[in-house]
Amino acid sequence: MKKLKYWGWGHEGEMLHASQAKALLDNLADFGIVPSDNGKFPDLDAINLPRCRIAPPATLQDMFKSAAYERVLHSFGQSQPDSIRIYSCDFAHAPDLVAYPGNAIEVAEIQDWCGDAGIAVIPYGGGSSVVGGVTGDIGSGYNGTAIINMSRMKKVLEIDDVSRAARIQGGTRGPELEAQLKPSGLTLRHFPQSFEHSTFGGWVATRSGGHFATLYTHIDDLIENVTMVTPSGEISTRRLPGSGAGPSPDRFMMGSEGALGIITEGWARLQGRPVFKATAGFLFERFFDAAKAVRAVSQAGLYPANVRIVDGVELKINGAGDGSRSLMVVSFENSDHPVDAWMARADECCRDHGGIVDVEWRDNPGANLQGTVGDWREAFIRMPYNREFLTPLGIISDTFETAITWERFENFHDKIKEATELAIMEATGLKGAVSCRFSHSYPDGPAPYFAFHAQGRKGELLRQWREIKNAASQAVIEAGGTITHHHAIGRDHQEWYEKQRPELFGDILSEAKSRLDPRGIMNPGVIVR
Questions:
Q1: What's residue 269's pLDDT?
Q2: From CA 161, how far away is CA 176, in angstroms rounded?
Q3: N or C end: fewer C-beta atoms under 10 angstroms in the chain?
Q4: What pLDDT was estimated at residue 433?
């Protein structure tokens, strides 16, 4: 079997090709961002792990692993600070043990033992968190840390082809899920960028945002029922297409990020596999004109599968343009009927706002692989591998995303970009680059997705990243946006989440955690602290 990397995305041997790495550096150099270091991530035998402090009882021993690779692999997720800390060989917080339960009963048994022994529990799906959601910074109030890796619970347990839904175990990764659904001719059609290395339970726990840029954007929109195992017992909701019966227990569990319990399974709505597809690309001289085109498409009730814009800075850094224009991609797909009429209307919306055709959609089934659209698609697919290449070179490269209503967007965009650019200058003494694209769109507003790149200094990358991230997060909150649209809270966003949510609601969450997790062992520091 392929071995997962502990220092980056995916499996060992998967990385940027030499030509892709060179192109990325050349593009960053055009913004004055050049390597300030020439190091490498530590080999496994060079990592000094703390002594394992705990041992499971004999009745649970077969579920646990404590080998160095297991502990190192489960020490971090995929965030920028995680990458910097791995590079710096900072594993003081490494988990003591990693558990692999095979069913909900075993999950509960592990929780019971950890509660009695004062051991913190961190649920682990695919380890794809980019916000510190699985990083074991739990403080000193525990006798140890245990990871619960859900990868043995990876089955589609039932498929209801009449109502088109499936009962799915929480540890089922994206490719495993779709492979099991394929014989039925149905699909969940939820494809976050982390699809290959994230799980159904993780999607529910973090309110994941998937491939669809409109309508069915979040996993929330696809859930019929949730089952969660908490230290106080199991919660399983009634499977329904909809309900008006009071505050929703499903909604309560979605987004809990392992702080209340572990999502062990759930029923999710399915749909037919797409048969009819169409994609078009348009170039705009002004990013805000492209945004107006997105608003027109969103408010026309067309609900495309994909309607995204990317500014010139983002295109240039990723080798998909020269920086002079912004790109808009529009795609429709359906399992039942042709989509030409919807695409024709979206085409009109784009042209009405100054869009120039980059890729024609008519009679062009390969449109998504052509022109700037195809170049951007390639860049998007390889993007998760950028960070492991850039961190040892002393280059900070991170993203953050938010959402705002349309009437505030342009002013919001300028404030966030200006605050982030200023923070880069103050933290590094150099200019850097900040870009923006849309990940999702609604009739009442977009989800802007910002990226920032900066030349850091050896030994100071973590401090510099934190200064930039804090300034950008503060700007988002002050300007009225959300601290996250789909990346989740984790530990990196907790401070800002507490500023965003109503104070009384925070008190209610604390009370709920005290009831469900009375010893406070579940993912300490996330959602409730």
A1: 98
A2: 19
A3: N
A4: 98
What type of residue sits at position 166?
A
The string of DSSP codes covering 185-214 is: TEE-----TTGGG-BHHHHHHHT-B-S-SS
Nearest to 325 by CA among 300, 350, 277, 288: 288
Query: What pLDDT does residue 1 have?
Result: 76
| Of the candidates 359, 375, 284, the residue with the CA atom closest to the CA atom of residue 321 | 375
- Kindly give the parts of the chain with pLDDT less than 70: none
Asked whether 520 and 485 are in contact (CB, 8 A), the reply is no
Residues β-bridged to residue 166: 159, 268
| pLDDT (0 to 100) of residue 398 | 98
Residues 514-524 as b or e (16 or more Cβ within 10 Å = b): eebbebbbbbb
Q: How many other CB atoms are there within 10 angstroms of residue 245's CB atom?
A: 8
Q: What are phi and psi of 315, to 5 degrees?
A: -65, -45
- Between the alpha carbon of residue 350 and those of residues 46, 307, 357, 404, 507, the distances in Å are 54, 11, 9, 21, 46
Q: How high is the pLDDT of residue 340?
A: 97
Per the listing, tokens 């001289």 go with: 285
Percentage of the chain modeled with pLDDT above 70: 100
CA angle 54–77–177, rounded 5-degree value: 100
Q: What is the dihedral of CA 111, 116, 121, 123, to 10 degrees?
A: 0
Q: What are the tens digits of pLDDT across the range 342-382?
A: 999 999 999 999 999 999 999 999 999 999 999 999 999 99
The residue whose two tokens read 């339970």 is 201
Instruction: Tell me the C-alpha distance between 196 and 227, whole Å.
Output: 23
Predicted confidence (pLDDT) per residue in 469-524, tens digit: 999 999 999 999 999 999 999 999 999 999 999 999 999 999 999 999 999 999 99
Inter-CA distances, 124 with 135, 229, 302, 383, 395, Å: 10, 14, 37, 23, 28
All residues at 6 or more sequence positions from 406 whose CB lies less than 8 Å from its CB, including other chains: 295, 444, 445, 446
pLDDT of the residue at 211: 87
**Closest to 224 measured CA to CA, from 198, 192, 249:** 249
> In angstroms, rounded to a whole number, what is the distance separating the alpha carbons of residues 525 and 82?
16
Q: Is 512 helix (H, G, I), strand (E, B) or coil?
A: helix
